[in-house]
Specification:
Elements lengths: L1 H25 L7 H13 L3 E4 L6 H11 L4 E5 L6 H5 E6 L4 E6 L6 E5 L6 H13 L1 E4 L2 E4 L5 E6 L12 H4 L4 E4 L5 H10 L15 H12 L5 H15 L13 E3 L3 H17 L7 H12 L4 E2 L1 H5 L4 H11 L4
Parallel strand pairs: 1-8, 1-9, 2-5, 5-8
Antiparallel strand pairs: 3-4, 6-7, 10-11
Length: 330
């Protein structure tokens, strides 16, 4: 097993070196936000969709667009609005009066990387259409099924400060996102660097293509080979189960704070995301620290806190940190 891991790590170092080049290219246009960019790359390498929550102006669109350019992928930004229809997203059949036939007109969802901007502004039918495409990786138009190109990644944004005219995603739909990221302001030094970089209003930076879509798919196969020890699997299951039954793990003080614990998707996704995170570090195995780093992003939208927790100004992140602090590490 040790020899297999060493051999795998040699291959991973070559491939993860390309990811470092991608980050370097993106840094030409995006200052800071390393956390968001790294998690976006994890989503790309695993096929897991991501929900971004952050205030306007934090380079979410720019980061996604830059990522697409570094792999020569088709990028599409879709602005969700209350008057939007499912056909505006997936497309529709268009009638040709001259020939008397219908032909498919594919919607903007037919791209490799989708930025679903302010997803909570669209009505439930549109949200459902998007989530169906995310799950099935295909679109049905008038009885015909059209598979989407691979890789396919949806990054959906939510504005946390505006609730008027919005349709919050139900918990069952939020659960379909692999990770939920909280995008924060840049640091003071990063913001000063941003100011230095903006020299003109029409400044354009050409980014090099580092990855081909085929290479991304090959990396996915390699991530699946990253070693996940049985003890690490038990640790993942303990973390998720403790969010449902905290008293069984000596965490009875958390029980009144949790309405609903994390779903089985959290268990599966945590293992996949931890493998991808280890891959980005150039490792051929998952360590407990990898689990601790990635767990908040995987679990924060899957743990529903109670009114009592809100009254105490506790968030799901606080619950997760308590779990990570108390559950024994293998």
């Amino acid at each position: 097993m040790y020899e297999h891991i060493k051999e795998l790590e040699e291959r991973i170092r070559v491939e993860s070196g390309k990811i470092k080049e991608v980050k370097t290219e993106i840094a030409k246009t995006v200052i800071g936000q390393e956390y968001m960019i790294e998690r976006m790359i994890i989503g790309l390498l695993t096929g897991g969709h991501i929900l971004l929550e952050g205030l306007p102006g934090l380079a979410k669109t720019l980061s996604v667009n830059s990522l697409a350019k570094t792999m020569n992928a088709r990028f599409c930004r879709i602005q969700f609005t209350p008057d939007m229809l499912p056909a505006d997203l997936v497309g529709t059949n268009v009638f040709n009066p001259k020939e008397g036939t219908f032909s498919p007109k594919k919607g903007p969802i037919f791209a490799n990387i989708i930025l679903a901007d302010e997803i909570n502004r669209a009505p439930a039918k549109v949200q459902s259409a998007l989530l169906e495409v995310m799950q099935e990786k295909q679109v049905s138009l008038a009885g015909e099924t059209y598979p989407l190109d691979r890789p396919f990644l949806v990054l959906a944004t939510q504005n946390p400060i505006e609730q008027e005219g919005t349709y919050p995603l139900p918990e069952a739909q939020v659960d379909r996102f692999m990770m939920k990221l909280k995008v924060s302001y840049p640091t003071k030094s990063e913001e000063r660097e941003i100011l230095n970089q903006v020299t003109s209003f029409d400044q354009q930076v050409d980014l090099k293509q580092i990855l081909a879509p085929e290479e991304v798919l090959a990396m996915r196969q390699m991530i699946g080979d990253v070693y996940l020890d049985e003890k690490i699997k038990d640790y993942i299951v303990d973390l998720v189960d403790a969010s449902r039954n905290p008293s069984e793990y000596g965490l009875s003080e958390l029980k009144p704070l949790i309405d609903i614990g994390a779903s089985p998707r959290a268990t599966i996704t945590l293992a996949i995301a931890a493998r991808a995170f280890a891959f980005l570090q150039g490792k051929g195995f998952v360590s407990p620290q990898d689990i601790k780093v990635i767990a908040p992003d995987v679990m924060r939208h899957r743990i529903m806190i109670s009114y009592e927790a809100e009254a105490e100004e506790k968030s799901s992140d606080d619950v997760i940190q308590a779990l990570l602090s108390e559950i024994p590490v293998p």
